[in-house]
Amino acid sequence: MIRSLTRLEAPDRLRMLLAVPAIAAAAAVLAACGSSGTSSASGGSGSTSTSTPAAATAGSLKTTTIGGATVLTSSKGFTLYSFAPDTSTKSHCNGTCAQNWPPVTGPATASGVTGTFGTIKRSDGSVQATFDGHPLYTFAGDTAAGQAKGNGLNAAGGLWHEITTSGTAPAGSSSTGSGGGGNGY
Predict the structure, then answer these.
(1) CA angle 99-158-69, nearest 5°?
(2) Rounded to an integer, what distance in angstroms lies between the CA atom of residue 176 and that of residue 174?
(3) C-beta of residue 173 within 8 angstroms of C-beta of residue 148
């Protein structure tokens, strides 16, 4: 039988009251992941450390150490990822996937990084940056520079991995068997 909140015993009321903020937080995270990522790719000044990585423009990339691995990041410090189902010539992340995992657009460079940068043409006609044949993405769930919340996620039909520069797989990731360069595969 369903009991009203006022008739619940004190420990039950406390558990219910503590669950409400957790449910609200989970709903906010899900809503953020499902958002359209409408921020522009202007790359202008005035950005803050809490800006989202949506519609990242490649340009000059950087590296940073996250969890003991040296990873490629956008110029704003957001971790870059690859999607296991992609090939060296085609991105398989479009529509809602690309809203949650914004492609890094345009050609890319990074000083001091060994590997090959290139580009592919996406199905919508835009140009996406690649590293060692892997199309590059940011993750909408990374809300601040230096985060790698997307690493190892199985989402949108495949595994996502941070792009490392060491030539070894990131800690806790498994090989996809897709071969490729020195970026964690």
Answers:
(1) 90
(2) 6
(3) no
**The pairing of beta strand 57-60 with beta strand 105-109:** parallel
**Can you tell me which residue has the tokens 């940056």?**
129
CA neighbor of 88 nearest in space, from 116, 111, 113: 116
131-183, pLDDT tens digit by residue? 999 999 999 999 999 999 999 999 999 999 999 986 544 444 443 333 333 34
CA–CA separation, 24 vs 8, rounded Å?
22
Structure tokens at 114: 């060994």
- Find where tokens 């790698």 sit: 148
Runs of H (alpha helix) within the chain: 10-33, 96-100
The model's pTM is: 0.64
First to last CA, the chain: 54
From CA 140, how far away is CA 37, in angstroms rounded? 8
DSSP 84-118: TT--SS-----THHHHHS-B-EEEEE-TT--S-EE
pLDDT band at 185 (very low <50, low <70, confident <90, very high): very low
